[in-house]
Amino acid sequence: MYNIEKLDNKGRGICYVNNKITFVPNTLPGEVVELEIIKEAKKYNEAKVRKYIKKSEKRIEGLCPYFGICGGCELLHSSYKDTLKYKKEKLESIINKYAHVKKDIEIISSDNELNYRNKITLKVVNSKYGYYEDNTHFLVQIDHCLLAEEAINSFIKDINYLNIKNGEVTIKSNYNKELLIWIKSKDMVNPDIDYLKNRHKIVGIVLNDKSLVGDTLFVEMINKMLFQVSYDSFFQVNRSVCSKLFKLVEEEIGVDDTILDLYCGVGTLGIVATKKAKKAYGIEIVKNAILNAITNAKINKRDNIYYMLGDVSKNIAKIKDDIDTIIVDPPRAGLDSITKQTIISFKAKKIIYVSCDPMTLARDLLDLQEVYDIKTIKGLDMFPYTHHVETVSVLCRKTIEK
Ligand SMILES: C[S@@+](CC[C@H](N)C(=O)[O-])C[C@H]1O[C@@H](n2cnc3c(N)ncnc32)[C@H](O)[C@@H]1O
Q1: Contact 236, 261 (CB under 8 A)
Q2: In this structure, are residues 144 and 156 in contact, taking their beta carbons and an 8 Å threshold?
Q3: Which ligand 1 atom is nearest residue 330's CA?
Q4: Contact (CB, 8 A) for 375 and 335
Q5: Looking at the chain, which terminus has fewer C-beta neighbours within 10 angstroms, N or C?
Q6: 144 alpha carbon to ligand 1 midpoint, in Å?
């Protein structure tokens, strides 16, 4: 029998088996469990619960039949309020431990606690659709996902009509409940288009990188701004929290600022910033995303944003303008050292760092503190009931240089 002491950064319970730290999903602090060790590494074990001896009175059960199996939402056994508390404590502890900064970090909640995701990706194995069980290639067949928007769940009921044998399928939905479907498969795929189009607002179906039906992009709307998004372009998954994120960024922009929007995706943050700012430069590595960004600047009546296609680390030094504010919104890996050094060399007065990974954020904040003070860090609950948390950090250049 083992006592679960607390949750780790991935939402798993922590206990000690012969003094070795052991991670146990689907447990809560205060619970007592019998375990089965499923992985023994040098410094830790991974285990699953064989039997609950004592359950926490805070445990919530029965919300999703796939909870604990599909590995999608690690915190669905907690109340929403408790998940926000967990995220606040996790963020504060990571930032304190790895960036050496003590901050009281507010977590901004999601208006939709469930059915918030505008994009999901399902695996297809022998014409069965589902998620892989955590860390395995074992398919958990699903017929709905509590995190996905209603338009996506309605489509999943008819997903067999896509007639995919093996591969994966990404389903995106927009503000207007339209769907953009992206299939990756080596096989021939022959969807029953008439049936699917009769029942769902399908804008397009893309097979690998070619249109099978209709368009390869659709339009999203956030805070009354419209954005074209291609099948392979990034877009924030939670529309209501994305709206709050845009407002946080906008508040930090000065009139007459020149902005650098690094990892700009379809151009959203640069377009938000140039509501006030004088000019912006955006850099992004995905071709369709930068093409979307160019169109999005036009749709939103901006003629003062300049885009570059390519790797940020290889292109950032090509910008020769004086930069006031640098917005960075990198993938989970955070900023590489060349990019960090070049960012510092711009001597911008402000950096707005949007991150989806607190660990790489903390590492980068530690490096940037050589020249920048951390003014604020705010958490945004972009991914309710998962262990993930989005952040917006505002850094101001120190007045005395080292
Ligand atoms: C977290 S998203 C942010 C996108 C955008 N700021 C938004 O909010 O929609 C990260 C973006 O960085 C792009 N990306 C990833 N690695 C990159 C690199 N080395 N150079 C440039 N862009 C990169 C991805 O394609 C993706 O669009």
Answers
A1: no
A2: yes
A3: 10
A4: no
A5: C
A6: 29
The CA distance from 363 to 209, in Å, is 36
Place of tokens 């695996």: 123
Q: What is the pLDDT of residues 54-88, one digit of tens each?
A: 999 999 998 999 998 888 899 999 999 999 999 99
Q: Which of 49, 14, 40 is nearest to 29 (CA)?
A: 14
| Banded pLDDT at 402 (limits 50, 70, 90) | very low
CA 33-131-384 angle, to 5 degrees, is 70
- Protein residue with least CA distance to atom 7, ligand 1: 265
* Residue 393 vs residues 91, 102, 273: alpha-carbon distances, Å: 12, 13, 16
Q: Please tell me the total number of residues recorded for the chain in this structure.
A: 402
Ligand 1 centre and the CA of 146: distance in Å? 27
CA of 262 to the centre of ligand 1 (A): 7
CB of 283 closer than 6 A to ligand 1?
Answer: yes
Q: Domains of the chain by range and CATH?
A: 2-59 (2.40.50.140), 88-111+238-397 (3.40.50.150), 119-219 (2.40.50.1070)
Q: Residue 261 CA: which ligand 1 atom is closest? A: 6
Q: Which two tokens stand for residue 361?
A: 């954020």
Residues 359 and 127: their CA atoms lie apart, in Å, by: 38
